[in-house]
Amino acid sequence: MSARDVKVAVIPEFARPVVDQISAAGIYPAWTLTPAEWIVVHALIKRSGEDMLAAAAVQAAQRARTGVAHARYFVRAWQALPPAPEPGTVPAAPAAPGRGSNVLPFPSVGAAADRPGRAAQAAGWYADLLAEEQ
Question: SS in 3 state form for the chain?
Answer without folding.
Answer: CCHHHCCECCCCHHHHHHHHHHHHCCCCCECCECHHHHHHHHHHHHHHCHHHHHHHHHHHHHHCCCCCCECHHHHHHHHCCCCCCCCCCCCCCCCCCCCCCCCCCCCCCCHHHHCCCHHHHHHHHHHHHHHHHC
